[in-house]
From TrEMBL:
Protein name stated in the entry: Sigma-70 family RNA polymerase sigma factor
Pfam families cross-referenced by the UniProt entry: Sigma70_r2, Sigma70_r4_2
Domain RNA polymerase sigma factor 70 region 4 type: 111-157
Species name: Ectopseudomonas mendocina
Highest taxon listed in the record's lineage: Bacteria
Domain annotation RNA polymerase sigma-70 region: ranges: 15-80
InterPro entries: RNA_pol_sigma-70-like (IPR039425), RNA_pol_sigma-70_dom (IPR014284), RNA_pol_sigma70_r2 (IPR007627), RNA_pol_sigma70_r4_t2 (IPR013249), RNA_pol_sigma_r2 (IPR013325), RNA_pol_sigma_r3/r4-like (IPR013324), WH-like_DNA-bd_sf (IPR036388)
């Protein structure tokens, strides 16, 4: 029959004193280190305390062993999960950091391209943006702008050439 802790808190203290050393030794042999053994033993007694009962004297060690086995399984599961998570994190690339100088150069190049685009006719500028930004085919662009496909090809080629020249002039 189980003894209620609320009726005899000294019973839990006695239970702990009688079996703690034995449980720690058992776990130390099973786990191979005393730190994990102490942690698991603590978890076992905490579990027992929260349950609010102590097994009969003849069942104490068997019950402690069973709870300890469950806690060891939990430990291995948690470590496996942590290991998998850390493995996934190690496979991810670190986010690239961009220096202020590189950022300034990119902004300057974008400003030059924008300036070159503003100097182009509206239809030519729109044709390039529809093709490069929205991924539309020349036929779709021609229908939208109400021009021929060959006109779209010429617009896109002319604007690309102008943008290339603007970036090359900057680099010289």
């Amino acid at each position: 029959m189980d003894k209620e802790l609320s009726l005899a808190p000294q019973a839990f203290e006695r239970f702990y004193a009688d079996h703690h050393h034995w449980l720690c030794n058992l776990l130390r042999r099973k786990l191979g280190n005393s730190m994990d053994a102490a942690d698991i033993a603590h978890d076992v007694y905490l579990h027992m305390f929260r349950k609010g009962h102590i097994p009969d004297t003849c069942d104490c060690r068997r019950h402690l062993t069973r709870v300890a086995q469950c806690k060891v399984i939990d430990l291995y599961r948690r470590r496996s999960l942590e290991s998998g998570y850390l493995g996934e994190l190690s496979l991810r690339e670190e986010p690239a950091t961009v220096s202020e100088e590189s950022r300034a150069l990119v902004c300057e190049a974008l400003n030059q391209v924008e300036s070159a685009l503003r100097r182009q006719p509206a239809k030519a500028r729109q044709a390039l943006l529809l093709n490069r930004i929205e991924g539309k085919a020349y036929r779709e662009i021609a229908d939208e702008l109400k021009v021929s496909v060959s006109s779209v090809e010429k617009y896109v080629a002319a604007v690309q050439k102008t943008c290339r020249q603007a970036t090359l002039q900057k680099n010289e």
